[in-house]
Amino acid sequence: MPLTSKSSAIAKVDIDSKLSISQLQGGLPPRMRKYVTQEMVDVVNDVEDGDFREHYRNNVMSFTTVLKAGKFKTLDYVNAVKFVSFKLLGDGNTLAYSKTFPERYKRLVDKGITGKNIAAYSTAYNRGDLVNKIMEQSLVPIHILNMDIHQEAINVQAELMRDAKSETVRQKAAECLIMQLKAPESAKIEIDVNYNNDSIDELRATTRALAQQQLALIQSGAVTAQAMAHSDIIARKKPEIETEYEEL
């Protein structure tokens, strides 16, 4: 059976760039795995551009933490990641929207919706909670993004500490380096000790029950007070029955 042009384009791409159901399930929280369908995987694998498909697949696997709260449908997640993936490559909202939802975009155009109004649709989608949570996951922390500048600043401070003519400048540079280059502090282990009265209350109840049992035995004449005082006591618990005591 001959391949269609679309199938041919996909077939030429390395199979490793495709996503499998098991791969997607492995990246999702356990309670979400049952919602993975072939339709979701096809959304990723049907992208003809192999380079983008690999970029898209990696993002689908990387941003799954946004699904932990269980607020979003998995198919909506896959589509939102596709939208974000286009934006991360430099596309504007409307262009990313048209590539993510080509059929939806075509319907809007066919209805005669103006470009301005279509842009409003794409902007609204871009402001959605799911898209924003995925965008947050894609952001590189500023301290990592500026590691080279941070190192350059340290080098400048080191140069000032060694070569500055002003003692004050050298001192300030040294203080800055001490703060920036100090070893990480040891992690402090905090132990929360919760006092529980359950054991003490149980001991009090047991002692009270024993005293009442001993008193009843003495009053009935079954045992003398002297014999009771010299007796050994073994506690014997029966399931769902209050503790009984056996006098030895």
Q: Let me know the average pLDDT.
A: 77
Low-confidence segments, given as residue ranges, are 1-15
As a percent range, the share of helical residues equals 55-70%
Backbone shape: flat
Instruction: Tell me the strand percentage band.
Output: 5-15%
Number of helical regions: 14
Q: From the helix content, strand content and strand pairing, which structural class follows?
A: mainly alpha
Described by strand count, sense and barrel closure, the largest sheet is: 2 strands, antiparallel
Sheet with the most strands: spatial strand order: 1-2
Oligomer description: single chain
CA-based gyration radius: 36 Å
End-to-end distance, in Å?
Answer: 92 Å
General description of the model:
This protein has 248 residues and is mostly helical. The protein folds into three domains: 135 residues, no CATH class; 35 residues, no CATH class; 46 residues, no CATH class. Helix content is 62%, strand content 5%. The protein has 14 helices and two strands, in the order H-H-H-H-H-H-H-H-H-H-H-H-H-H-E-E. The protein has a two-stranded antiparallel ribbon. Strand 1 and strand 2 form a beta hairpin.
Summary keywords:
248 residues; 14 helices; 5% strand; two-stranded antiparallel sheet; flat; mainly alpha
Characterize this entry briefly:
The chain has helices at 5-11, 21-27, 38-45, 50-62, 74-88, 93-100, 102-110, 115-126, 129-138, 142-145, 147-163, 167-181, 198-220, 225-229, and strands spanning 233-238, 241-247. The protein is mainly α and 248 residues long. It has a two-stranded antiparallel ribbon.
